[in-house]
Design brief:
- By secondary structure, this protein is mainly β.
- It folds into two domains: 59 residues, no CATH class; 454 residues, TonB-dependent receptor, beta-barrel domain (Maltoporin, Chain A).
- It has five helices and 26 strands.
- The chain has a 22-stranded antiparallel barrel.
- A hairpin with a 4-residue loop joins strand 7 and strand 8.
- The longest helix is centred in the first third of the chain and has 26 residues.
- The chain is globular and about 135 Å long.
- The relative contact order is 0.09.
């Protein structure tokens, strides 16, 4: 192999005469280090080219390594020629006893004062006496048969000997009733059975002025007594978690002292089918009524009536947090068996309410209608001085549109304001029976002192407002009022319907033992028709105010005494034409509660 001169060595030979050998070796070391550092950069560009014989070739690429690292101590050791040593410090406490007279009191847990729970008794008895020889008696008993079953019994008697000023006929009244019930609450259903009887005595004492002028012997021969006998039986059932929600059945019989009789049976089932966001409700209404009167007011024939009304009212209900809407319709089929007449009718059932401001302002409105079956029982409950010669027919409530606002001003103050307009077809109106020519064979109701029922189509505009304040258990106050405007189609007036009704009532607790209540009723003017077979004239009955007040005192949780005052203004007003009421009425009595 030829001897290729090394350029480095050549360079060294050329310069060896100028510098010492040690200096040359130092330069060589620096040069080698520089080559080792720069070699990777040259290799990246020179691998594809032929090696220049004058350039040093690096066979192995440079592989840098990291030298061993060491951890710096948080507290480094000082290599100091001068070091100091900390001195040990010893502490000691000089304790001196000090006499003390302080003695800590033992802690006592504070308890919340609880009010004594009100003791509830299953039974009570009340007995009271008042002027006009009035008697009030009540007895109630609740018997717990098992954890799920219980029975109840209620007896009530209220009577007075009348003695109304300037009234010549007997005017006493008497009302006694007995009711019983049985209730069973099972896991998925609850059912109840009811039954009762009632006996009432009233007198047709409202003689017109013409008869008041008759001789005493003629008036003494009048027997104004009327007695009602009624009884009922029925029951109801409610089912949980079922499309069949509940149903109620009631059967009632009514008879009087003039051979009148009436039988009434009603069945009202309710079904509910929940959908995705809606609820489909279907209400049924079956009403069967049959009765008879021994004679009509003209004594020409008897009166019989028989109706079967079957109704179905489907509705769709939507309810969310603020909005509630119910859209439905009611359809009825009415069968008049005595007159062989069948009638079908439809009525709207629309209701909606919306919360504008939570419970403070709730706006509501709707249109409703339906078929109302009148009965002898309902008429005598409203006006016990009707004659046993009535014509009975149903009333069609074609529609009643209403709208209003209700809500709570605060937790203790609630209000309701409403306006409505509706139309009734064959609305029942009480009207005084005509005066007949005197006859010694007259019944007690044939002296122009009883009421008949006439029917007319009546449009009614009404306004209602109510305010209730319930501060606490010690005081509550309620005020409500109704204004009516009637428009009768065939009759001259809507007989005996008031244009204004208002009431104020309050309950209060003066002390734990002393409590009381007050009420004030106002009924506006009414009109009736007086007919003496010669002339007819309208008679206006003045409005009246009836003030009532009662107080009670609890001697113990079992025994209490009470006093009641009615018609405290002493106004002998007429609720019905020629029927004045008793003056100031007072009643005092005691109530005793107990368990068997």
């Amino acid at each position: 192999m030829p001897n290729i001169p090394n350029p480095i060595m050549v360079k060294l030979k050329q310069n060896c005469h100028a510098e010492p050998v040690e200096a040359h070796f130092t330069q060589i070391r620096y040069l080698l280090v520089s080559l080792m550092v720069l070699a990777p950069f040259f290799l990246g560009n020179a691998q594809e080219k032929e090696l220049d014989p004058e350039v040093v070739t690096i066979v192995k690429p440079y592989t840098p390594t990291i030298s061993d690292a060491f951890k710096v101590k948080e507290t480094p050791e000082l290599n100091d020629s001068i070091s100091t040593t900390k001195k040990e410090v010893k502490y000691s406490i000089f304790s001196v006893p000090v006499a003390s007279t302080f003695t800590p009191a033992k802690g006592k847990a504070t308890t919340v004062e609880k009010s004594k729970p009100l003791k509830l008794y299953d039974n009570y008895a009340t007995l009271g006496f008042g002027n006009y020889t009035s008697i009030l008696g009540e007895f109630y008993s609740n018997i717990e048969i098992s954890r799920t079953d219980n029975a109840g019994f209620f007896f009530r008697h209220n009577s007075s000997q009348g003695d109304i000023k300037d009234v010549k006929l007997d005017n006493k009244y008497y009302d006694t009733s007995v009711d019983a019930n049985y209730t069973s609450r099972q896991k998925d259903e609850t059912y109840r059975l009811d039954a009762g009887v009632e006996h009432q005595i009233y007198n047709w004492y409202g003689l017109p002025e013409d008869y008041i002028a008759y001789p005493d012997n003629v008036i003494a021969a009048i027997d104004p007594l009327q007695m009602y006998f009624s009884g009922y039986a029925g029951g109801s059932i409610a089912v949980d978690d079922s499309f069949f929600e509940k149903a109620a059945l009631n059967i009632r019989y009514l008879g009087d002292a003039f051979s009148s009789s009436e039988f009434n049976a009603t069945l009202k089932p309710e079904f509910s089918f929940p959908l995705e966001n809606l609820t489909l409700k279907v209400d049924g209404d079956i009403d069967y009524l049959s009765g008879s009167f021994d004679r009509n007011y003209a004594n020409t024939s008897d009166i019989k009536y028989s109706y079967l009304n079957a109704g179905l009212a489907p509705s769709i209900t939507f309810v969310n947090d603020d909005l509630s809407v119910s859209l439905g319709v009611a359809g009825y089929v009415s069968l008049d068996s005595e007159n062989s007449n069948t009638d079908f009718s439809l009525y709207p059932r629309l209701n909606a309410s919306y919360r504008l401001l939570d419970e403070t302002v709730i706006v509501y409105g709707g249109v409703e209608g339906g078929l109302q079956q009148n009965s002898y029982y309902n008429f005598k409950e409203e006006n016990p001085f009707v004659s046993p010669t009535l014509f009975i027919a149903p009333t069609k409530k074609l529609y009643e549109g209403f709208g209003g606002v209700k809500g709570k001003i605060s937790n203790s103050v609630a209000y309701n304001v409403r306006a409505s307009y509706g139309k009734d077809e064959n609305r029942a109106l009480f009207q005084m029976n005509p005066v007949k020519v005197y006859n010694t064979t007259f019944e007690g109701y044939e002296y122009g002192n009883s009421f008949n029922v006439v029917y007319d189509d009546v449009n009614t505009l009404a306004f209602f407002a109510a305010l209730k304040v319930e501060v606490s258990n010690t005081f509550s106050l309620g005020i409500n009022g109704n204004y009516y405007s009637y428009n009768a189609e065939f009759q001259d007036e809507a007989w005996n319907l008031p244009d204004l009704q208002a009431s104020i009532f309050s309950n209060f607790n003066i002390t734990k033992q002393l409590y009381g209540g007050a009420s004030l009723f106002y009924v506006g003017k009414r009109k009736d028709l007086y007919n003496d077979l010669l002339t007819e004239r309208e008679v206006t009955l003045d409005g009246y105010v009836d003030a009532n007040l009662h107080f009670g005192y609890r001697f113990t949780d079992r025994l209490s005494a009470f006093v009641k005052g009615n018609n405290l203004f002493g106004d002998s007003y007429q609720k019905w034409l020629n029927y004045p009421v008793q003056g100031i009425q007072g009643l005092a009595g005691v109530t005793y509660k107990f368990d068997w």
